[in-house]
Amino acid sequence: MEINFIVYLIITYLLGSIPFGLIISKLFGKDIRKEGSGNIGATNVTRVLGKKAGLLVLILDMLKGFLPIYIAKYIFDTKLVSLLAIASVIGHCFSIFLKFKGGKGVATAIGVLLALSFKAALIVIMFWLGVFLVSGYVSLASMLSASISWVIINFIENNIYYTYAAFIIGLIIILKHKDNLDRLLKGTEYRFLHK
């Protein structure tokens, strides 16, 4: 594996590791890890700091997934791009800056998916939005969307490497939502709509 790819892989992981939720919360004089659900993602930031802060974190988390993968498509073949896609989400979920802890990877995964396949990403986003509007649960929408993303990208792109990447990313996201799943089953999960 060429040295250029190794360097790019490390950079992609480090970019994914930037905890924008924590950084933004610090600017507001809070530590998001000690507020709400304790998660550093846009959902908890919105819950604790408001919609504007949450939207900013969402955009930044998406961009750190989108930019390195979008650029990589012009440099590397699809097999290597797929490895970079996984590395980006791993960076967010297991950040070197947070002692290998992190968020749940949804926003970063959306950014990655937009870079891999704009059409597939739009379908997944619309599916996410539909589940969210009906159920009111961000976590449920995220888990269901993660579970079908690989099927959609396989249908749209017919690229085995992108399909594998989406499957692995979806699995990571679902595993990171284990506590949310437990709360959903117990009926104690935080509900954004239809309270």
TrEMBL record:
It catalyses: an acyl phosphate + sn-glycerol 3-phosphate = a 1-acyl-sn-glycero-3-phosphate + phosphate. The keyword Zinc does not apply. It holds the Pfam family G3P_acyltransf. Its EC number is 2.3.1.275. InterPro entries: G3P_acylTferase_PlsY (IPR003811). It is found in: Cell membrane. It is a multi-pass membrane protein. The chain crosses the membrane at residues 6-24, 55-75, 81-98, 105-128, 134-153, 160-177. GO terms for cellular component: plasma membrane. Pathway: Lipid metabolism; phospholipid metabolism. GO terms for biological process: phospholipid biosynthetic process. The keyword Transmembrane applies. It is an enzyme of class 2 (transferase). Keywords: Acyltransferase, Cell membrane, Lipid biosynthesis, Lipid metabolism, Membrane, Phospholipid biosynthesis, Phospholipid metabolism, Transferase, Transmembrane, Transmembrane helix. GO terms for molecular function: acyl-phosphate glycerol-3-phosphate acyltransferase activity. SMART domains: G3P_acyltransf. Belongs to the PlsY family. Catalyzes the transfer of an acyl group from acyl-phosphate (acyl-PO(4)) to glycerol-3-phosphate (G3P) to form lysophosphatidic acid (LPA). This enzyme utilizes acyl-phosphate as fatty acyl donor, but not acyl-CoA or acyl-ACP. Probably interacts with PlsX. This is Glycerol-3-phosphate acyltransferase. It comes from Sulfurihydrogenibium yellowstonense SS-5.
